[in-house]
Design goal:
mainly alpha, single chain, 12 helices, 76% helix
């Protein structure tokens, strides 16, 4: 509790104005102490409330930027078609966005389609707000890659723009290529019978499914049990919803992170079963 304002106010008030000055000084000191308390706990100088408010703002900016850049990516092929809109809607469905959060995502997507959309400025803000949290930047990049692959193919203009996005976020071309390869395999993995909602296969996995499982984890089919476990644990650590939430992932995007971990788990379990790894 802040008291020094009241003490000093009362002291100097009494010196300058006697008993009346003491009361006035006590009142003004109380106001000063209250203001300091509000600043410390609610509005500035790094207080708890300020951190919470800034965190909410950063999450909102991250959410808006994610869908705005997605809209810009869709526009990179020329005119945004109904297919691109369908893809964006499908991602919103996967996230479970409804009501106001869905309207915000749709508005952000439309912002990204504008000719004067400030892509570099938006990406610079994302990178700055995620400073020291590489996992969040990776999530942002993978969100764009998923959107680009959602229609089953990657257009050359989308690939070119993904390089721009990745570089702006601090990723190398090699890192992007690796993520593109893994996401393409993950897309085939999902199409081959993996039920994203249930986290299981709708049908018996094929040899191609096994190959896609390896590639989606970023390892070769000749990988040992130890290499498989190491790759799996690394990816799960990067995509775990609780860890991403602690680092500032917007709650509206949490479902996508959960589905990614289900996908990784299914790929890992499939390889272990087929290879007889323990």
């Amino acid at each position: 509790m802040q008291v020094w304002g009241k003490i000093l106010g009362a002291f100097f008030g009494f010196l300058l104005g006697g008993p009346f000055g003491l009361l006035l000084g006590l009142y003004l000191g109380h106001k000063f102490d209250k203001a300091r308390t509000n600043i410390y706990y609610g509005g500035g100088f790094g207080g708890f409330g300020a951190g919470r408010a800034s965190s909410v703002e950063r999450q909102a900016e991250f959410f808006h930027a994610g869908f705005a850049v997605m809209g810009h990516l869709a526009k990179s092929k020329g005119r945004v078609t109904q297919e691109e809109i369908r893809v964006a809607s499908a991602i919103m469905e996967r996230m479970g966005l409804h009501g106001e959060s869905r309207r915000q995502a749709q508005n952000a997507f439309r912002d990204g389609k504008e000719e004067d959309f400030p892509l570099q400025e938006t990406l610079a803000k994302v990178r700055m707000s995620c400073s020291g949290r590489a996992d969040l930047l990776q999530f942002f990049l993978e969100l764009q890659i998923q959107a680009a692959f959602a229609d089953g193919s990657l257009h050359p203009s989308e690939r070119q723009l993904l390089y721009v996005i990745a570089r702006s976020l601090g990723f190398s071309d090699r890192q992007l290529e690796q993520r593109l390869h893994m996401q393409e395999a993950a897309f085939r993995f999902q199409q081959g019978g993996f039920n994203q909602q249930q986290g299981a296969f709708r049908q018996a996995p094929t040899r191609d499914q096994l190959a896609n499982a390896y590639e989606s984890l970023g390892i070769k089919s000749s990988a040992s049990a130890q290499e498989l476990k190491r790759a799996y644990r690394k990816l799960m650590n990067e995509h775990h919803p609780d860890k991403l939430a602690a680092k500032g992932l917007p709650p509206e995007m949490m479902e996508l992170a959960k589905q990614k971990t289900q996908e990784l788990q299914a790929a890992y379990d499939l390889i272990r079963k087929e290879k007889g790894f323990k």
